[in-house]
């Protein structure tokens, strides 16, 4: 059971996990590992104070890319469930931007798949951030950091 | 002349001053040629990406009738 | 700010994260990444059906080891906060056993530290599991799986 | 003769049939010798671990007055 969501307004990642588990994993006793990642907006980036941000995306392609990323990760690791949510629109510091959760029998698959999905999303899903700085300027974030995995 | 839909996102949308072109053109045509015809005098920034029907494509890939084409800068989500 | 907790009864990892954030990270805009891991009791292990489990530990040493694991991970990675909770006592399938959460500015440190803490805990913290099988037998889990990280 | 406290956990606790020994002994003494004296006729299982004052220690490490010593099997938490 996978769930991919785009949120136009603010969302609470922890309540989203609780809802997902209540709706889909109630009484399920087969998963031993849940790895999650939440990306949150900071009030600084590349040395500058950031006051807000607009997250633009390409809806049909976003959906297709995210589905493909999740599908491929399920082929690669013995994953039982994936929950993936991403915020778009006007975002304030401390707002959650992205949530990736993976349920699996064992911890290695959960950790690996969660990080893999996050890196793939960062480098393939068509989202773009435009930051408004404290200085009054605004700028497009030019590039995501390289893949952070060792391999 | 065949219908093609072209979308622009983020900094490329701002660069060309429009979010969409929708019109008829001789196909097949490469992504690179399509940009040149639609945005005369504006160079496509070097790191730009192309998607055809929501899949990444090379700038030399041919575009066909009814394709949805998108030009955009490197992605920065997550 | 770090928090290390031993629970004698059941606990909800997601509500524990929500409480930690409400109490300690309200209005904090410096973290961009939260990586978490939840270990949950499965109803099977090594090919057998498991009906319940007793988790024994060595309280003073547990506390000392967990503190040391968290301290060393903070020295190794630029981590802002760590929340670590572990269940002891009588445990049923689908009960959460362990929670590790790491808050950091960037995702690499959060992912790396979370996984590191989890592996260190698995191999150093003095906890022992005794499973009761559907067959009526009971047995001590003999050993944790090897470190699952690549390096 | 000095006071030493010895704890046993999990399968080792079941093996020796007690969770604790607390008594006076000649120190220093290694963990290995301590086990032999306290549990005559019961071999310490090969993968067993020793902690002295809540830190892992080698079986050859010397134990001193007022130390808290613990014998236990490989840990299986998390």
State the CATH topology of chain B: Ubiquitin-like (UB roll)
Distance between the termini of chain B: 40 Å
As for the number of domains of chain A, it is: 1
Helix and strand element order of chain B = EHEEHEEEE
Number of strands of chain B: 7
Structural class of chain A: alpha+beta
Low-confidence segments of chain A, given as residue ranges, are none
Organism (chains A, C): Leucothrix arctica
Subunit structure (chains A, C): Heterotetramer of 2 MoaD subunits and 2 MoaE subunits. Also stable as homodimer. The enzyme changes between these two forms during catalysis.
Pfam families (chains A, C): MoaE (PF02391)
GO molecular function (chains A, C): molybdopterin synthase activity
Report on the structure:
The complex is a heterotetramer, with two copies of chain A (151 residues) and two copies of chain B (78 residues). Chain A is α+β, with helices and mostly antiparallel strands. Chain A has helices spanning 13-24, 59-76, 107-124; strands at residues 2-7, 33-40, 44-45, 48-57, 79-87, 89-91, 96-104, 127-133, 138-140. Chain A has one domain (2-14, 35-137): Aldehyde Oxidoreductase, domain 3. In chain A, the strands form two sheets. In chain A, strands 3, 4, 6, 8 and 9 form a five-stranded antiparallel beta sheet that branches. A four-stranded mixed beta sheet of chain A has the order 1-5-7-2, sandwiched between helices. The two termini of chain A are 28 Å apart. By secondary structure, chain B is an alpha+beta fold. Chain B has a single domain (2-72), classed as Ubiquitin-like (UB roll), CATH 3.10.20.30. Chain B has two helices and seven strands; from the N terminus they run βαββαββββ. In chain B, the strands form two sheets. In chain B, strands 2-1-7-4-5 form a five-stranded mixed beta sheet. A two-stranded antiparallel ribbon of chain B has the order 3-6. The radius of gyration of chain B is 12 Å and the shape is globular. The model of chain B has no long low-confidence stretch (mean pLDDT 95). The A-C interface holds A 14-15, 17-18, 21, 27-44, 93-94, 105-108, 110-111, 115, 118, 145, 148, 150-151 and C 14-15, 17-18, 21, 27-44, 93-94, 105-108, 110-111, 115, 118, 145, 148, 150-151.
């Amino acid at each position: 059971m996978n769930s991919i969501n785009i949120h136009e307004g603010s969302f609470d990642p922890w309540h989203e996990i609780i809802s997902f588990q209540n709706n889909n994993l109630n009484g399920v006793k087969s998963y031993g590992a849940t790895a999650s990642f939440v990306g949150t907006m900071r009030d600084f980036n590349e040395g500058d104070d950031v006051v807000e941000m607009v997250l633009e995306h390409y809806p049909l392609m976003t959906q297709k890319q995210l589905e493909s990323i999740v599908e491929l990760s399920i082929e690669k690791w013995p994953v039982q469930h994936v929950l993936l949510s991403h915020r778009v629109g006007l975002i304030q510091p401390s707002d959650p931007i992205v949530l990736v959760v993976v349920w699996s029998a064992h911890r290695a698959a959960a950790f690996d798949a969660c990080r893999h999905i996050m890196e793939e999303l960062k480098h393939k899903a068509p989202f773009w951030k435009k930051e408004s700085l404290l200085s009054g300027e605004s700028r497009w974030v030019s590039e995501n950091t390289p893949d952070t995995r060792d391999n | 002349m065949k219908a093609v839909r072209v979308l622009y996102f983020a900094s490329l949308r701002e660069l060309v001053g429009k979010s969409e072109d929708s019109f008829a053109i001789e196909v097949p045509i490469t992504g690179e040629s399509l940009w040149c015809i639609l945005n005369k005098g504006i160079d496509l920034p070097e790191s730009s990406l192309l998607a055809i029907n929501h899949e990444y494509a090379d700038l030399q890939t041919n575009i066909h009738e009814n394709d949805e084409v998108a030009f955009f800068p490197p992605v920065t989500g997550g």
